[in-house]
Amino acid sequence: MAVIHCLGAGLVGSYVAKRLAGAGHEVHVYDWQPHRVMGVAGIHVHPEDATDAVGGMSKNGAVDMVVNMLPGSIGHVASTYLAESSYRTVDLSFSKFTPDRDDEKALDYGASILWDVGVAPGLSNMLLAVADRKMGPLAKAEVWVGGNPTGPYGEWFYMAPFSPTDVIAEYSRPARVIRDGEQVVLPALSQRHLIDVRERGEMEAFLTDGLRSVLSSIPAVEMSEFTVRWPGHIQKYIDERDAGTLDEEDVVRQWWYDPKIPEFTWMRVRAQNRKGEVMEWELEDYGGDDGHSMARSTGLVTACCIEAWLADPNMLPAGVHAPEVLSSEVISGIVETMRSVGVRIDGPDIL
Q: In this structure, are 97 and 180 located in the same domain?
């Protein structure tokens, strides 16, 4: 078993730490508010600033793997520090400053970083890579994804399954997409359209900046990622933003996750090649005894990547690596593990 150091113990981070400890690993968690993992067998809690802890993790024993699960800009600070180490790092932080910026630094220090290993980005990248490998050049690649209450909830018809601050940042960043084979920037929240979500009915989708590494790693004529919400949510956000009445502190408070509210995570990944052939996958999860749906669907991808890398220490060389570089065998293992715990994933075989 390995010694794994986890930065962050939020909704997703705590799920990953518990799963790793349950698998028999020695897990060290660094977080100022570690209440979600207190008293869990196999987890050693370090209530401290996780970014400050990066340089001193080795004082707590061996470091076989580091998992960065800090939010936003804090996560980027940790990523930059980790690029100056010799550690293997699985990075789930979601910042506009992506870890690939530190590739040369990681090569110089001998660090290996696998980044964006969640459901989207993460599993979505992997499935697009599978489609590209199987069907050849893609004409169109699209991802729709959202974590939402099972019905419109509260004033905003919404509850955030991870840091509400990160959701606001997601709504604020212009969306990078591919049009006519070239990367272009479109306004976030644009290209709104209705989409039928199995079991839930009609929801609304809009552009967000979630493609990230696949913008350059997977050639396509057109490529887009859309966030999915209940109709009415994003119009209210746009109206308050444009009127100057959007109170971010109040929004964070109203969007905060409430474990008593039923919720689900849904994703569709669709790829079409230049011959008109299509590969499409659909994921849906309503949570379980081990965690809420976004923690499961995101954290399972993270945990599976960790296990695959521990099983094959040579899986990735030094440098910074996006999830779509993983082999089809590893991707298939992730999908089968998720299915084995009740996450529904429909679609063509990976292998």
A: no
Residues 77 and 162 in one domain: no
Pair 18, 34 in one domain: yes
Residue 20 sits in the same domain as residue 106:
yes
- 96 has pLDDT over 90: no
Three-class SS of residue 303?
A: helix
Residues 270-299 have a mean pLDDT of 96
Looking at the structure, tell me whether residues 14 and 84 fall in a common domain: yes
Query: Is the pLDDT confidence value at 346 over 90?
Result: yes
Q: Which two tokens stand for residue 264?
A: 């689900």
Q: Is the pLDDT of residue 73 over 80?
A: no
Q: What is the DSSP string of 34-52?
A: -GGGTT-TTEEEE-S-HHH
Domain check: are 216 and 263 in the same one? yes
Q: Indicate if the alpha-carbon torsion angle 187, 192, 196, 198 is positive or negative.
A: positive
Whether the pLDDT of residue 167 is over 90: the answer is yes
The verdict on 102 and 129 lying in the same domain is no
CA atoms of 223 and 204, how far apart (whole Å): 18
pLDDT tens track for 267-279: 999 999 999 999 9
What average pLDDT does this structure show over 280-304? 96
Question: From start to end of 31-111, where are the E strands?
Answer: 43-46, 65-68, 88-91
List the helix and strand counts (H, then E) for the chain: 11, 16
Cis ω for the linkage preceding 161 (within 30 of 0):
no
Judge whether 74 and 51 are in contact, CB under 8 Å. yes
Residues of the domain holding 237: 123-292
How far apart CA 94 and CA 117 sit, in angstroms, is: 10
Using only the alpha carbons of the chain, give its radius of gyration.
Answer: 19
What the block records as the tokens of 94 is 């979601």
pLDDT band at 208 (very low <50, low <70, confident <90, very high): very high
